[in-house]
Amino acid sequence: MKILTEKQKAVLKFIENYQMRNGHSPTLRVMREHFGVSSDNSILKHLKALEAKGCIKKDDSPRGGIALLSKIKEKLSSSTVQVPVLGSIPAGGPVLSEEYIEKYMDFSPSDVYKPEKSFILRVRGESMKDAGIYDGDLVIACSTKEPRAGDVVVALVDNENTVKRYMKERGRVYLKPENDAYKNIYPENELCVQGVVTGLVRSYY
Questions:
Q1: Structural domains in the chain plus CATH codes
Q2: Residues 6+ away with beta carbon under 8 Å from 40
Q3: Which of 118, 145, 164, 176 is catalytic?
Q4: 128-177: per-residue pLDDT in tens?
Q5: How many CB atoms lie within 10 A of CB 187?
Q6: 172: enclosing H helix or E strand
Q7: By the number of CB atoms within 10 A of the CB, which of 64, 69, 134, 184 ranks highest?
């Protein structure tokens, strides 16, 4: 494979992530909107360069779209599912784009609750250590699961993602840490629950 320019790398990475999430390739319009360009020509230029360098191929459709990349084909046909590890989650909720995805992790489909609706976030700090969740752990969360009192959740508070226990008391919602050194978090305005934690991944090295 020949050396790619930074822009070509960005286009190829976007195609790869899009195919992994959707099972098919992005349209020119989707790529145009993602990269903030007004003309198809700039996207087509990069696609032709990627094709010439052997990075992508056209499919058999009449419109000549982009065929699934070989490694994406293998992953989609395997017996595992992939869940994205997000560096952070914006206010609108989990956004599965390369801007936020650090990598993907493979799991058996039976090991993850609704894998297609799940994401992974790295825990920072010791506020949940008494619940067995430590600094550096990875929590798996489902973005569509309805939170219930007592659930551990990923939530957005003061523009920062945090992992805490979701609590309700006399109709008031708050977040409870599992460490006596930390105080409960009572939202002044709105508390945004972005996912209910359904699993934990820990590395010992």
A1: 6-76 (1.10.10.10), 81-201 (2.10.109.10)
A2: 28, 32
A3: 164
A4: 999 999 988 999 999 999 999 999 999 988 777 889 999 998 878 999 99
A5: 15
A6: strand 172-176
A7: 69
Flag whether pLDDT at 204 surpasses 60: no
DSSP string, 55-123: S--B-SSTT--BPPPHHHHHHHHSS-EEEEEES---TTS---STTTEEEEEEE-GGGSSSGGGEEEEE-
Which candidate in 118, 127, 145, 176 is catalytic?
127
- Catalytic site residue 164? yes
**Does residue 127 contact residue 107 with C-beta atoms inside 8 Å?**
no
What is the C-alpha radius of gyration for the chain, rounded to an integer number of angstroms? 20
Q: Which two tokens stand for residue 78?
A: 């395997």
Take residue 46 and report the two structure tokens written for it. 């990069």
